[in-house]
């Protein structure tokens, strides 16, 4: 083989090098195309872009250009960027957190608060007044807790939920300005408002059809209505204080079926609604969408990940907490 190489003519060498160059160019083109296809894409006819916190199988912050600028090495259920720039998270149960946890971390990864769950899962977390952290525990004794900064339980409110399926007890519970708690109860197919003494103040049932209209997100709006994502029912509804549906969004309203297990949700100050299609787990699929009150899609987010986004929070262009009330 050495002799054969030694006796190649210059023309042969040139032809060989040309063929190699063409092959390398083709490979480079395919590689560039793959990288371009893998890049996250924000699509909007009007030029809308969003920075956001993504929670779920991966936990990260995306800037307005679609670049991931912060990561946390655990799966999460819920979370908020706080006014001080830290991130408060409901961590999924794993080897480090067998009952889930509520943690607050800095942008450089330091943990400044931690409360480990004592039952099956911690599904909700929210910073509330008196420098406390509100969280929910799923388990044999489902409950809402408020804990102080040293992890002492200050408030405990029992949740009246089924105990046959612990995972499908509750999701995005929120403390309301009136000090009550708004609790979506999935398998019970009801959103309940609990007083601090545990009494049920009001409730709104989700539709009987389609099947499995499990309430995941419940957001009390300034007008007193409640915005609800109904997971496997593939719909988002808004109900009035009496529980009557006054607005709803289904895939029939959209140019394509973008609602695939809608879980996380946020109502923006302009009246638009951001929805996370958690079941949209194919590379290149729409993971987040924004719709107007008239049900027009004005923004979508796609990425190459093989999982959807569980919950989200829209941020300002710098990845920080924007002004105004966060309705998520």
Structural summary, described in words:
With 328 residues, the protein is mainly beta. The strands form six sheets. The protein has a five-stranded antiparallel beta sheet, with no helix packed on it. Strands 4-3-2-25 form a four-stranded antiparallel beta sheet, with no helix packed on it. Helix content is 10%, strand content 40%. It has two domains: 38 residues; 268 residues, Methylamine Dehydrogenase, Chain H.
Summarize the structure.
This protein has 328 residues and is mainly β. The protein has helices spanning 2-6, 10-38, and strands at residues 41-43, 51-55, 59-62, 68-72, 76-81, 87-91, 101-105, 111-116, 121-128, 132-138, 143-147, 153-158, 174-175, 181-185, 190-194, 200-205, 217-220, 226-229, 235-239, 245-250, 262-267, 273-277, 286-291, 297-302, 311-315. The strands form six sheets. A five-stranded antiparallel β-sheet has the order 1-24-23-22-21, with no helix packed on it. It has a four-stranded antiparallel β-sheet with strand order 4-3-2-25, with no helix packed on it.
Helix and strand pattern: HHEEEEEEEEEEEEEEEEEEEEEEEEE
* Percent in strands: 35-45%
Radius of gyration: 24 Å
The name of the CATH topology of the largest domain is Methylamine Dehydrogenase, Chain H
CATH superfamily of the largest domain: YVTN repeat-like/Quinoprotein amine dehydrogenase
**Total strand count, please?**
25
Distance between the termini: 69 Å
The tally of structural domains comes to: 2
Uncertain stretches of 5 or more adjacent residues: 1-38
């Amino acid at each position: 083989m050495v002799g054969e190489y030694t006796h190649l003519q210059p023309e042969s060498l040139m032809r060989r090098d040309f063929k190699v160059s063409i092959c390398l160019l083709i490979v480079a083109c395919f590689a560039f195309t793959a990288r371009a296809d893998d890049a996250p894409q924000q699509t909007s006819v009007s030029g809308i872009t969003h920075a956001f916190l993504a929670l779920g199988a991966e936990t990260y912050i995306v800037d307005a250009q679609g670049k991931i600028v912060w990561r946390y090495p655990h799966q999460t259920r819920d979370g908020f960027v706080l006014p001080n720039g830290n991130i408060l998270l409901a961590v999924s149960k794993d080897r480090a957190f067998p009952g889930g946890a509520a943690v607050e971390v800095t942008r450089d990864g330091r943990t400044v608060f931690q409360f480990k769950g004592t039952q099956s899962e911690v599904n909700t977390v929210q910073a509330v007044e008196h420098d406390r952290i509100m969280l929910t525990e799923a388990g044999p004794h489902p409950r809402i807790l408020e804990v102080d900064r040293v992890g002492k339980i200050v408030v405990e409110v029992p949740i009246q939920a089924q105990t046959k399926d612990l995972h499908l007890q509750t999701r995005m519970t929120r403390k309301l300005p009136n000090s009550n708690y708004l609790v979506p109860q999935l398998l019970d197919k009801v959103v309940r408002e609990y007083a601090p003494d545990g009494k049920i103040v009001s409730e709104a049932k989700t539709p009987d059809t389609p099947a499995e209209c499990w309430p995941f997100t419940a957001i009390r709006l300034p007008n007193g209505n409640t915005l609800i994502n109904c997971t496997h029912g593939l719909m988002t509804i808004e109900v009035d204080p009496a529980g009557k549906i006054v607005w709803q969004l289904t895939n029939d309203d959209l140019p394509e079926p973008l609602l695939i297990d809608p879980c996380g949700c946020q109502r923006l100050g302009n009246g638009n609604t951001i929805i996370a299609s958690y079941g949209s787990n194919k590379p290149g699929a729409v993971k987040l969408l924004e719709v107007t009150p008239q049900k027009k899609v004005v923004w979508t987010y796609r990425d190459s990940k093989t999982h959807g986004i569980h919950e989200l929070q829209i941020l300002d262009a710098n990845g920080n907490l924007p002004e105004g009330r966060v309705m998520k």
